[in-house]
Each structure stands twice: as C-alpha cells, then as structure tokens.
Request: fold
Amino acid sequence: TIIALLCMMVLYGCASQRDVVTLDNRQTLIEKRYLDSQKMNKELESQLNAQKQNNQNLRNKFAEQHAIIEGLEEEIQTLSGRLEETEYLLKQKIKTFENSYKKKEIRLNRIDRISSSNKDHIARIEQYLNFESTETGLKGDKVSDTKTDILSKKKLSEDVIYQSAKQAFDQGNFEVAREGFQKLIKLYPKSKNADNAQFWIGEIYYHEKWYEKAILEYQKVIEQYPQGNKLQASYLKQGFSFFNLGDKANARLIFTELIKKYPKSNEAKIAKKKLKGLAH
Reply:
C-alpha cells in the first residue's frame, strides 16, 4: 500500500511539472502575441498620423490653389474692364477723327465751290474784255474736259481699273492711284478687289503721313471686309498709325487685339516685336 501511494505521488508530481511547463509556454506565446499586437498598433498609428499629415498638406495646397485661382479671376476681370474701357476710348477717338475729317471735307468743298465760282467770274470778265488768248485757253480746257468726260463714260472692267490704280501706286503717283481705287469701289462695290482697293487707299494716306485719315481707311477694311485678305494688315498698319501719332496706348491695344485674333499670322509676329519695343 505504501509503495502504491509513493508511486501515485511520483506520477502526480510529474504531471504537475508538465502542466507548469505547458502553462509557461502558453504564457510566453500570449506575451509574444501581445507585444506583436502592440507593435502593429504603433505602426498603424504611425501610418494614420502620416495620412492625416498628408491630408492636411493636400488641404493646404488646395487652399493655396483656390486663392491663386481667385486672384487670377480678379485679375482677368480687371483686365477685361480695362480692355473694354480702352476699346470704348479707341472708338471715340476714331469717331473724333471721322468728324474732324468730315469738317475738313466740308471746308474743302466750300473752298472748291468758291474757287470754281471765282474762275467762272474771271472767265466772264476776260470774255467781256475780249482777251483772246484767255478765250482760246478756255476753249482748250472745254475740249479737254469733253475728252475726259468721254473717256470717263467708257465702261472699264474692274480688273483694268484696279491694275491701273495699283500701277500708279507702285510708281508713287498717289493721287491718280487714290482716284482709281475710289472709282473701283464706287462702280464695283462687290468686286473681288474692293477690299484690296480700300486697303491701298489707307496705304496712300499712310505714305502721305496723314495718319488720322489712314486709321479711318484701315477701319473701313476691318468693318466692311472682315473676310478679306487685308484684314490682318489693316490692324497692323492701324497700330503703326497710332504709334506714329504718338498714341502708344491705342497702338498697344491694336497690336494686342491683332495677336489675340490672329496669333499665327505674320502680322501678329511683327506686332509682338513692336509690343516689346513699346514695353521699354
């Protein structure tokens, strides 16, 4: 009996020792898992903080971009307002040129009428005094006028009128050229050369340094022939005319409008170079 009891006690001691080892192992495993979970929590927390920082940075950048966009919109509105104001002033200036030119035309016509009246009066006095040489001269003038009337009544083709006027222009005979181009526009307003004729009229005034009148003639090309091949050139020469008048503000406006509407044209390239010069 004693032996059996001793055997049972030994077996119980061995079993208890195995249980302790097993418990120790489980405790160690649990502690390891706990440490691993803590480490993982720290990593997740670090990633979350980094994400929060990134989100904050994105919000800051978005706010900066929004502020920049608002600033650009305000600047665009300001520039649009200035452009509209400048365009209005330009149109007013062109109207002033037109009114001034009309007044000059009225004065010139009045002078022509007075001059013609004086010539008739002198002719009557000379006839009364029997100045034969003067009579002969007057008769010669009448014959010349008759020939001119006959020639003017002959119907010339629009091409002949245009080529003759252009040839006169190339030769520097501006008065004859101007009359020819004006005649073409009057007789054949829908001619394929009408826009070119109008442009060359502006060029004649430009060469004569009558820049105010040149601006008005170029404006006719822009308004009446928007599909013509002299549109860009008219903008450019209009800008040069304002520049030659010392009006750099309107010159800059015309050049800018030309570049904006026809950026790929050769005239736009010239306008860009001119604008750089105006900036200094």
